[in-house]
Each structure stands twice: as C-alpha cells, then as structure tokens.
Amino acid sequence: MSDHHSEEVIVGWEHHPFYKNCLDVMSAAGRQIDLDPNVYQRLAKPRRVLYVSIPVRMDDGTIKVFDGFRVQHNTTLGPAKGGIRYHPEVNLAETSALSMLMTLKNSLVRLPLGGAKGGIRCDPTTMSRREKQSLTRRYTSEIFMLIGPDKDIPAPDVGTDAQTMAWVMDTYSAQLGYAVPGVVTGKPIEIGGSLGRVDATGRGVVYTIIEAAKRLNMDLGENTTVAVQGFGNVGYYSAKIINSLGCKVVAVSDVSGGIYNSKGLDINAARNWLNEHKTFDGFPGGDKLSNKELLELKVDILIPAALSNQITKENADKIKCRILAEGANGPTTIEANDILNEKGVFTIPDILANSGGVIVSYFEWVQGMQSFFWSEKDVNNKLWEIISSAFNRVYDFHQANKVDMRLSAFAVSIEHISKAMLYRGFFP
Ligand code: NAD
C-alpha cells in the first residue's frame, strides 16, 4: 500500500473541505515566500492525534459513549495550544484543520506556542451540568498523557467555557496531587484566570477592525452598521465592544436564527433575552431574520463568529459589507475569498482577527507561571500592542506584494515558523 493510500485509509484529511481549504491557502501563501517544500510537507500534517472514546453515565441511567480527539499540530515554537470544542459535528479532520490554524495563528502573533485543538462530538445544549462534568473529567483523564503546562494547554472554544476549563484543571490536578492552574487557560479568575480573558477574542476582533478602518479612511461611529453571526463568547463580546465605540449593531444571530433593527439593537437586552428564552424568537427590540439573511445584509462591517464554511461560493456574491472581520475560525472558503476580493471586501482573516483569545490565554499562562497577576488595563494594553503590530505586519505584506490579507497573514506566519523549523531541523 502506498503512503498516500494509507493516509486516506487512516484519516482522509485531504478530502475534508475545511482541511483542504487550509492546505490550499497554506500552499498559495507558501508560493509567495518560496517556502521550503520540506517545511510545507511537515506543516501539511499534524504532529500527533489522539482519539478517545468517552463513556458517560447519563441522567437516565444509561451509558453513552462519545468520540473525542486531541490533535497537536506543531510544537516547534513552544507547548501546543488550542481550544476544546463540544459540538455534534466535531470530527478528526475538522479538529486537525483547526489545530493547523492554531499553529499559524500563534506564529503570526509571535507567541512562543505551538498549535493544537481538541473536541468531543456531542450536543452540550441538551446535556445536564452533571453529564457535561462527567464527560469533561473522563475526556481529561483520557488525554492526560498529552496535556500539561509545558506540553499542551487547552482553552475554551465552541460549546465550552470557563467552567469546563475548571473541571479540566481539577481533574488534571487531582491526578498529580496538587493544583496545576497552568494546564488550561480561560479559567475562572478565582482559580488563576486572567482579567480580560473572557472578552479577549471579541476585543481583539474589534482592535483589528479599528486598524482596518484607519487604513480604509473609515470612521467608526453612529453611522457605522455592524452585523454579527453567532452570539456566544466571540459574537457577544465583539458586538458589545464595537457598540461601545458608538457603532450601530443592526443584526445578531445564534443557531436558531437572528434579529434585526435598522436603528441598532440593545446588545445587553438581546443577551438577557437569549439567556432566559434560549432563542431570539419573540425578542421585542427587533425583527426576526435568518442566518442566511444576516450574512447578506448591506452593512459596513460583518463579523461571522459562529462556525466554519459560512461564506461559500454560493453566497459570496451576495455579501455586501466593506470589512469582513472573521471572529470564527474558517468561516470563508477559498473560492468565496476570491469572489470577495473581486468585490472589494476588505477581509481581516481569522488567524489575525480572532487571535485576541490566544494572546490573552498566553498572558494567563505567563501570569500563572509567575504567580503575579496584572490589571485588566495592562492586559488590554498588551493585547493592543501585540495584535496591532501583527495587523501591521500583515498589512505591510499585503501592500508590498499586492496579495490579499488572508494570503498575507498566512505568508507572514509561515515565514516565521518555517525559519524556526529549519533552525531546529528534522529529527533524526
Ligand atoms: P460559543 O459556543 O460561545 O458560541 C457559538 C455561537 O455560534 C452560539 O451563539 C451558537 O448558537 C452559534 N451557532 C452554532 N451553530 C450555528 C449555526 N449553524 N449557525 C449560526 N450560529 C450557530 O463559541 P465561541 O467560543 O464564541 O466560538 C465561535 C467561533 O469563534 C468558533 O469558530 C471558534 O473556533 C472561534 N474562536 C473562539 C475563540 C474563543 O476564545 N472562544 C477564540 C478564537 C476563535
């Protein structure tokens, strides 16, 4: 059996549209910087993958066995780092693609961290707190040998939050017999979390929008309209923070659909309604609209902050924003990216736009190791410094080489990590 064949049998990565999309962007970016083909080959596959099956006793007494993964894509720059996702569509190829994006994101913003991702195929919205706790603790004990403050440091992603991280930390610490806060980031403040972590991804999205608006000579104020897809951690804080700059958030949505108000939505009222009713249906401050309609609204700024593959060749032509700020990972396919470029949409790509989360996760890890905690103002200022200088590097590449922002971000990132990989060499 050829190597190629055995790869297909084992994982079939190359056939997964999201994984393929990441490879296509990476190879196009590689051509911009004359990437060493050996480095490309290495980056095209994850370093390690672990599949785990996770038995959970459900509240009705039955045992349900869930599928979970942890993928470490690259550890050249430091310990692997990346979120854990709980969602019914989690699979190995998607988790691997997301881990690759983490490597590239961390390299782009120059963190001393590698890339990883984990996930469990489950629907946390239908599970009780006890079931989620059992699931998380068993998953943690199954991936115990891979994770650790110097090895691989998980964080929240879709369907997981600070509480999930607290359970991971507690389970890991129980095995060792002492508290190990550095094993995860995105923890509650009381057990070593960082101020400013909970809103860091949304804040970073808005910081990159501020930088983009400067370059485009666009004012951000009451005449600026914004639509946000997804109203979880990234979507809610992006909406809230851009609203605090005076911009008008006219539409938001979650998995059940969205709401629209041309005069601007009250973001806190929308959040309270969603917390209470679990759907935007019936929200008195706006009209109902679908996720599809939200993406196609004529707005100045569109922030997809839900899942991947939302803007494809089917709807790219209908996208009417001036700035597309990718809060989510992989929301735009490569074909859609080309269509958006032709239409003059300015894209702030995912690995840049949503890097605020991992930047402040890095701060949390550093603060934990030093047992010395910073003020929220310090955290936000340092976030601004790192993300705006990453924006500048990408924008300068984009201007100098006349390639779009996505290829520029990938090229700038790959250039940095490829040098590190070549210095370290390929063992043996
Ligand atoms: P979350 O679970 O807090 O929120 C996800 C949101 O997406 C929810 O509002 C959910 O209802 C909505 N959603 C789910 N399926 C949907 C669908 N089919 N259509 C429309 N909306 C849908 O997750 P999050 O942490 O906000 O992550 C959102 C995105 O941002 C993901 O792509 C994630 O990988 C990325 N991201 C998250 C972080 C972070 O720090 N949390 C950092 C970087 C990137």
List keywords for this structure.
428 residues, alpha/beta, Rossmann fold, 2 domains, seven-stranded mixed sheet, 15 helices, disordered N terminus, binds nicotinamide-adenine-dinucleotide
Detailed description of the structure:
With 428 residues, the chain is of the alpha/beta class. The chain has two domains: 3-180, Rossmann fold; 200-353, Rossmann fold (3-Layer(aba) Sandwich), CATH 3.40.50.720. It contains 15 helices and twelve strands. A seven-stranded mixed beta sheet has the order 9-8-7-6-10-11-12, with helices on both faces. Helix 2 crosses helix 15 (405-424) and helix 14 (376-401) packs across helix 15. The two termini are 25 Å apart. Mean pLDDT is 96; it is low at 1-10. The structure holds nicotinamide-adenine-dinucleotide.
* Through-space gap between termini: 25 Å
Present as ligands are: nicotinamide-adenine-dinucleotide
N-to-C series of helices and strands: HHHEEEHEHEHHEHEEHEHEEHEHHHH
The backbone outline, from C-alpha atoms, is globular
Q: How many separate structural domains? A: 2
Question: Can you count the helices?
Answer: 15
Q: Which structural class should the secondary elements be placed in?
A: alpha/beta
User: What would you report as the Rg, rounded to the nearest angstrom?
Assistant: 21 Å
CATH topology of the largest domain: Rossmann fold
The CATH homologous superfamily of the largest domain is called Leucine Dehydrogenase, chain A, domain 1
What percent of the residues sit in helical stretches (DSSP H or I)?
40-55%
Question: Order of strands side by side in the largest beta sheet?
Answer: 9-8-7-6-10-11-12
